Amino acid sequence: xxxxxxxxxxxxxxxxxxxPTIQAPTDAIVKVVAGCVCGSDLWPYRGENPITPGxxxxxxxxxxxxxxxxxxxxxxxxxxxxxPFDHCDNTCPHCRFGAQNGCVxxxxxxxxxxxxxxxxxxDGSLVATDGVPDASLLPSVLTISDVMPTGWHAAVSAxxxxxxTAVVVGDGAVGLCGVLAARVLGAETIVAMSRxxxxxxxxxxxxxxxxxxxxxxxxxxxxxxxTGGVGADAVLECVGTDEAMRSAFQMARPGSTVGFxxxxxxxxxxVRRMFQGNIGLAGGMAPTRKYMPELLAMVLDGSIxxxxxxxxxxxxxxxxxxxxxxxxxxxxxVLIEP
Amino acid sequence: xxxxxxxxxxxxxxxxxxxPTIQAPTDAIVKVVAGCVCGSDLWPYRGENPITPGxxxxxxxxxxxxxxxxxxxxxxxxxxxxxPFDHCDNTCPHCRFGAQNGCVxxxxxxxxxxxxxxxxxxDGSLVATDGVPDASLLPSVLTISDVMPTGWHAAVSAxxxxxxTAVVVGDGAVGLCGVLAARVLGAETIVAMSRxxxxxxxxxxxxxxxxxxxxxxxxxxxxxxxTGGVGADAVLECVGTDEAMRSAFQMARPGSTVGFxxxxxxxxxxVRRMFQGNIGLAGGMAPTRKYMPELLAMVLDGSIxxxxxxxxxxxxxxxxxxxxxxxxxxxxxVLIEP
Lengths: 338, 338
Description:
homodimer; 338 residues; alpha/beta; Rossmann fold; 12 helices; 30% helix
């Protein structure tokens, strides 16, 4: 099949690789209808994470079940499914505790930007729609694979409450979905930290009541002003850098929680401030499957449209341009059609 | 008045110092009936925290109101009161949010091991009993000044749930109160990490179902075994060292929370493990006043007896021996009678 592969920093190609196959009776193979590029794909793209040259890349996709293993009972070829980036059996003690990210049979999508993807623990992982979704809904359905549940996880972990104030640090697609999540969860004041006009627009469409372009101390100062000196009831950290995390903790009011979903790179947590202020940290890699049914239902009934984060659609052959566009912040998030 | 003062590492004296006086109309002066030595007093005692030689030390006490400032309306001379170590107005936005530790008028008791103590924000801070408590209740009432609310805060922050498993790291008086809190909050399996026989006995009296003497990897292994490989539903970190914190995160199951109340010294939080496992951190300096009414009521109706943590009572003149006894782990917690 044709698949996106990574060969070094900023070296993304489309290569012919072996088709994925059923390797365990719990596996399924999905023919990808749409995949996309994740902000976290940019870490290896920029050389910040180690890679094995020639490996496939891409972990978000939706598609049609092509083949299932002998033990898969809930899905059959032809079903349209959303594939969570993190696969789980959804029955182990960790899954039952709501920590599907820690499933004893945890797996990951490794060829979401390709013609086919293998899903481990298909029965536990996949969520099907009733037929193929309308093309207009497809981008939003695709976000349920990762970016929307991840933004949602930031908001839930930060304890966003009805009537409260939520600040979202990071204006990537995850941060924008965090804004949307905060709105759905009833936050009254929602601040998007963003200096990019197109992203500010999406943030406002998603429910941001304030946009703050400043960063660092000036950004913290702006939040203090918006909150009457108190600080935010909930802060969503959707970047993963030390600077973003530090700002998040400075914006958070005593007794609140920072919900973090940006993969931490070089982050040193300010434990003294956390202690003195009683500012907690919660979140991490999203237990995607936990949130999928609820979020997919909201997409299908039109109450949320997270697909607005896609501002560029490219055929698989041009996936390298998709990475470039996101790296250079010319695009928020790129949808890939195999 | 006679007060405990610190002059250098392991140099604790009883000195004649000026009586505390009303400095703001919201102040009260309390004649100390009982004070005590806190585990956190041992940090400066051991030279781990900077001090100003000659400063008074001690932040836990109960006593009788001696004098009140002009603005104090809820208390009058003669009232028996519990003094939280952290004073708050209990009306500011942070207090109303349940983060009394972050009160805009935050203050601290600085002469709890002395004849008199000044309480700032008396109306917000103090909680009175109906008359002087019976002598047999006094030690337990004294714990409401700090150690019991701190252990309680660890348990609440860790999200201890009815029927769940709670592990308490640290067998100081705070850790022991954490065991008691976990029992009151309904944990079914309560593991006290303790290698000291007298502390193990108190832990069992407080509700520990298991005692684990091992530390480090062996301690983590023991918790894995007790929890069938899953890890603990809630971990209370009541020490404040890097080793204790690391162990706590290794014992905690994915999706759970470490509740921390030990003042962090040299702690580097394991952010990658927190991210991958979705193990949160919550807690910090206790919002003592928030919990005081509830905990005091439990003490007065006999449903809890946290005063069992006191295994040595000394007159103020012998306070230095109290520090020595706690430093050498000959005593769990020392009650001081002025």
